[in-house]
Amino acid sequence: MELWLTEQHTDGYSVSWKIKETLHVEKTRYQHLAIVDTVDFGRALVLDGILQTTEKDEFVYHEMITHVPMFSHPNPRRVLVIGGGDGGTIKEVLKHPEVEKAVLCEIDERVIENSRRFLPTISSALDDPRVEIRVEDGIEYIKKFEGEFDVVIVDSSDPVGPATVLFGEEFYRGIFKALTEDGIFVAQTESPLFNKEFLLKVYRTVAAIFPIARIYLTAIATYIGGYWGFTLGSKKYDPATITPSPERWKKIKTDFYNPEMHRAAFALPEFFKRALQEAQK
Ligand code: AG3
What we know:
The chain is an alpha/beta fold. The chain has helices at residues 58-72, 88-93, 109-118, 120-123, 138-141, 169-178, 196-209, 246-250, 259-264, 270-280, and strands at 3-10, 13-27, 32-38, 42-47, 50-54, 78-83, 101-105, 131-134, 149-155, 179-188, 212-219, 227-234. It folds into two domains: 3-54, Spermidine synthase, tetramerisation domain (Spermidine Synthase, Chain: A, domain 2), CATH 2.30.140.10; 58-279, Rossmann fold (3-Layer(aba) Sandwich), CATH 3.40.50. Helix content is 30%, strand content 32%. A hairpin with a 4-residue loop joins strand 2 and strand 3 (32-38). The longest helix is centred in the N-terminal third of the chain and has 15 residues, at 58-72. 42% of the residues are buried. The structure holds 1-{4-[(3-aminopropyl)amino]butyl}guanidine. Residues 50-53, 84, 86, 88-89, 155, 157-158, 188, 223-224 line the site of 1-{4-[(3-aminopropyl)amino]butyl}guanidine.
């Protein structure tokens, strides 16, 4: 018998992965959670039927969501990751020797526990002594801080269910306040092809709060449409024009990110550039 996991995106478009084994399934307080072993992508975390990360290609997403903002800041000592309970983003954050403290704020404890158990290559950095884990709602957690974090990374699921508030103005204002005076924040903000209007709305919200707002893209094999968007808000440094210093860059081992990929990620396709220019008017 063949087992397939199918993600249905529209009435006419779905993507499937062939499953070797279903390792775990449960309904948590917040969402449906599954860990499956796929034929081509290794083990994968699936939340509410949407594939979040796989052993094979997690490095692309986690490196690009992390190193673009981290290298855009000259000295990121305190970092907050909201969401990202699988630990992949924290793993990349900790590669930076400047980091003294990395807080993971994840609402669903079961994501952390199951990632620890079934996805050790992604989650193992969660045991590092520099990591503090808070099982809390990010929107409430962020309100507690003023001028605290150099970098905030929002590694959330799609804007449905528990993650919806993590794309709203109130949350972004909270992040602005929680950042230091030269702080930077980034959020995963969906597909430029399938969610163009949504991405532009997020961009407009961020641009109304932060002096510098940028969108960058990367190609992620396991996400809908392949191309994926990230939105940055920065108080001082422009991530689109920065080049990581060779001394810093040399110290970090990556498989996807490098200074050229950093610069290239800010190149936007014509249809999207046009839409962005319209949105800025
Ligand atoms: N967070 C982003 C998942 C978004 C995927 N959406 C989709 N395929 N429609 C992933 C968490 C990884 N740490």
